[in-house]
Each structure stands twice: as C-alpha cells, then as structure tokens.
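User: quick one, sequence for these tokens?
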C-alpha cells in the first residue's frame, strides 16, 4: 500500500504525507461526542420520552449520526483550510476531490455508527468517551499515518498494513497527489461499508432491546 509520496520530515513534503492521517484522526475525534451523547440519552431517560412520541424508533440514532457527520465534515473542511495555509499542496483534480470526499464521508459514517454502538453498550458517558479512544488515537498511530510501513518493525508493520485506517489513508494519499491508487480505494470502501453495517445493525438491535 504505497503512493510514491515520501515521508521526509522537513518542508512541505512531510505536511503532504501526514495530512491524510490527520484527517482520519479528525474523523475519529469527531465520533467521540456522538458516543457520549448516545450514552447520555440512554442513561438519563430522554429516550423513554421519545418512544411515547409518534416518531420512528430509528430516528433517534439516525439523528445523532446525521448531525455528527455534518459536524465532522465541517471540521475536515476547516482542517484542510489550515493545512493549505501551512503548505499542504494536493494536486488532485475535480474528480479526484470528489472521490476524496466520498471516501471521507464513508469513513465518517463507519466511525460514527461504531461510536453509536459503543455509546449504547457503555454504562456511563465517561466510559463511552474512553471506548472511542482506540478509534481516535491508537489505530491512526499504528498505521501509515506518520511513517511508511516499510520503516516499522515486522509485527507492527503487519498489523498496520491490514487494519482499516491504513487502507483509507493510502487511498486518500493516492487521490490527493495523483499517485498509484491500486486497490486502496476498493479496500478502504469495503472496510468502511462493512464497519458501517456492523455498527448500524448491532446498534439498532441493542436500541430496540433497551
């Protein structure tokens, strides 16, 4: 999973290399308030009031997801603006930018539905926030976000290569800088679709049981 972009730690080249990883960390951080909000709703009784109203049962969770996706994608746009001010210089054309937006949106949906699931299984809002930490920090750090895979020790490299964050990061790098994308986009979208379905179906099942 490579794009031809090197990880030089000086000048704008490293900014270009690291930005896709920072974007993914932004998505993970954006899912944390969703987990906390869902857990708060479930533990403070407001969901019981919603169930007495003439609304779809799924609308409560879906509302959290839609709101979170909008907020997270807004944060991504602001981050890209700051990156451009700092020297981030993608070479993507219009079609590649549309693909980047699609990949980021799919990744946001996946992380948000997983956050909803974690919020439902957590006993309190603090636990819900902590449960999302691996999505926000651990997995991005053990990926190709900051250093190339070939520079990692063997065991760490094997884990990083086959976890979902690396696939998404490498897909974004290829799209943003016109490098070889290979099957990275397909792998990334497959991961995102699978994680979204797992989060959605499991969260819906738990919510209907509660």
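Assistant:
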């Amino acid at each position: 999973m490579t794009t031809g972009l090197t990880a030089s730690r000086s000048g704008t080249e490293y900014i270009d290399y690291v930005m896709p990883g920072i974007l993914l960390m932004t998505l993970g951080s954006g899912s944390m308030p969703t987990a906390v909000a869902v857990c708060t709703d479930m533990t403070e009784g407001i969901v019981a009031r919603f169930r007495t109203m003439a609304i779809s049962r799924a609308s409560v969770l879906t509302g959290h997801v839609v709101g979170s996706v909008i907020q997270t994608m807004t944060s991504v746009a602001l981050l890209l603006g700051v990156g451009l001010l700092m020297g981030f210089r993608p070479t993507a054309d219009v079609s590649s930018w549309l693909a980047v937006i699609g990949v980021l949106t799919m990744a946001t949906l996946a992380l948000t539905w997983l956050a909803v699931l974690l919020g439902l299984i957590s006993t309190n809002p603090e636990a819900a926030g902590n449960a999302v930490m691996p999505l926000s920090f651990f997995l991005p750090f053990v990926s190709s976000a900051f250093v190339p895979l070939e520079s990692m020790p063997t065991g760490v490299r094997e884990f990083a290569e086959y976890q979902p964050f690396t696939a998404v990061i490498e897909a974004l790098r290829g799209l943003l800088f016109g490098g070889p994308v290979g099957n990275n986009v397909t792998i990334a979208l497959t991961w995102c679709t699978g994680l979204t379905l797992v989060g959605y179906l499991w969260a819906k099942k738990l919510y209907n049981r509660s």
